[in-house]
Amino acid sequence: MLHSLRSHGAFILGCSGTGLTQAEARFFREADPWGFILFARNVETPQQLQRLTAQLREAVGRDAIITVDQEGGRVQRLTAPQWRQWLPPLDQSAKVAENGKDAVRAMYLRYRIIADELRASGLDSNCAPMVDIATAQTHPFLRNRCYGEDLQTVVALAQAAAAGLSNGGVVPVAKHMPGHGRATVDSHKALPRVTETAQVLRREDFVAFAALGDLPMAMTAHIVFEAFDEAPATTSPVMQKIIRDEIGFGGLLVTDDISMQALSGTVAARARASLDAGCDVVLHCNGDLAEMTDVATASGFMTDKAALRATQAVESRRTPDEVDIAALEAEFNALLTS
User: Fold this and answer.
1) What are the φ/ψ torsions at residue 258 (nearest 5 degrees)?
2) What is the distance between the alpha carbons of residues 154 and 194, in angstroms, rounded to a whole number?
3) Residue 143, pLDDT above cutoff 60
4) Strands 75-76, 70-72: parallel, antiparallel or unpaired by DSSP?
5) 174 pairs with which residues across the strands?
6) Helix, strand or coil for residue 38?
7) How far apart are CA 271 and CA 284, in angstroms?
8) How many CB atoms lie within 10 A of CB 54?
9) Which of 111, 174, 175, 167 is nearest to 317 (CA)?
10) Helix (H, G, I), strand (E, B) or coil at 17
């Protein structure tokens, strides 16, 4: 198993549209990305997604993991009317709590139902749960995507979300390690800098991720933590060591999208710096074929350690437990009703 994974590229890639072009299929066959990620530009209907995911797996000749950002709320690539629409997570948690009902159960149900929708469309991974702790200063692009404003709440709800996905046969990806909640700028547009002390970060943000340290996959944050290093966590060997040794994350560590403006340099340079810092896999999302070619060339194959973690992530996929989705949805709706 390890030898076969060794030949896979150390990158997860997107594609440009709702079906593969001949050039994309040829490139994926030659570059052999470890997995794929889809966005709204790739999504029309469940049937179309089934065809596209089949094309992607056919291109690499194996049952590759295909992930998506289906948090629910503002970050939801599969949308109504073809799929259920969800409240932002922070809004959902507040509403259920106001009703005096079980926010943990509601979060589990939310992601168990989402898992069912993803599997029916050919997807088997989700870039969730969010393990970032919201603050009053958290940038609006992130804030209502978070699950809560305190460590205990975030951990409980993130664990419930991860369990809902896993039980539904979908591999969860914890994000954004080691914590994005204190960022006051949008990392899609600029590089956030966190000035909080090492003591506070270790007591709160890092502890949240440590509680999810047994998940098979996690995504890094493009954020400078000034108490530790001047490089963003994604490209910082110092922060990668904290993620592995202090937080104790042993799964497959994936970069956030390296096309985001928080990082500097070419996409090739960003990819190489991320892997050299300790990331296992580079995530490139925009589907630009020229950029993907550069990323593939710069990234090369997985290391032995990355290949082992990748094997474990693939093997964490399970057959979904048998449930009555309509009954779960009714229970979920009751939790939202006062």
Assistant:
1) -80, 0
2) 19
3) yes
4) antiparallel
5) 218
6) strand
7) 9
8) 12
9) 167
10) coil
Instruction: Please name every residue paired with 175 in a beta bridge, in sequence order, or none if there are none.
Output: 130
Q: Determine the Cα–Cα distance for residues 59 and 246; give it in Å rounded to an integer.
A: 39
How many Å from the N-terminal Cα to the C-terminal Cα in the chain?
51
In angstroms, the CA 121 to CA 134 distance is 31
Beta pairing, strands 224-225 & 65-68:
unpaired
> What tokens does 316 get?
């964490």
- Phi, psi values for residue 102, rounded to 5°: -85, 100
Give 301: exposed, middle or buried? Use CB within 10 Å, 0-12, 13-18, 19+: middle
DSSP type of residue 187: T
Would you tell me the crossing angle of helices 103-120 and 325-335 to the nearest 10 degrees? 140
Supply the DSSP string of 283-326, one letter for each residue.
EE-S--HHHHHHHHHHH-BPPHHHHHHHHHHHHT--PPPP--HH
The answer, yes or no, to whether residue 88 has pLDDT greater than 70, is yes
Q: What is the 3-state secondary structure (H, E, C) of 49-110?
A: HHHHHHHHHHHHCCCCEEEECEEECCEECCCCCCCCCCCCHHHHHHHHHHCCCCHHHHHHHH
- In 3D space, the residue among 176, 210, 208 whose CA is nearest the CA of residue 194 turns out to be 176
Determine which helix (DSSP H) or strand (DSSP E) holds 252, and give its type and residue range: strand 252-254
Catalytic residues: 188, 256
Tell me the residue length of the chain: 338
Instruction: State if pTM tops 0.90.
Output: yes
Three-point CA angle 306, 77, 257, nearest 5°: 35
> pLDDT digits over 166-224, tens only?
999 999 999 999 999 999 988 888 999 999 999 999 999 999 999 999 999 999 999 99
* Selection from 246, 292, 241 nearest residue 266 by Cα: 292
pLDDT score, position 6: 53
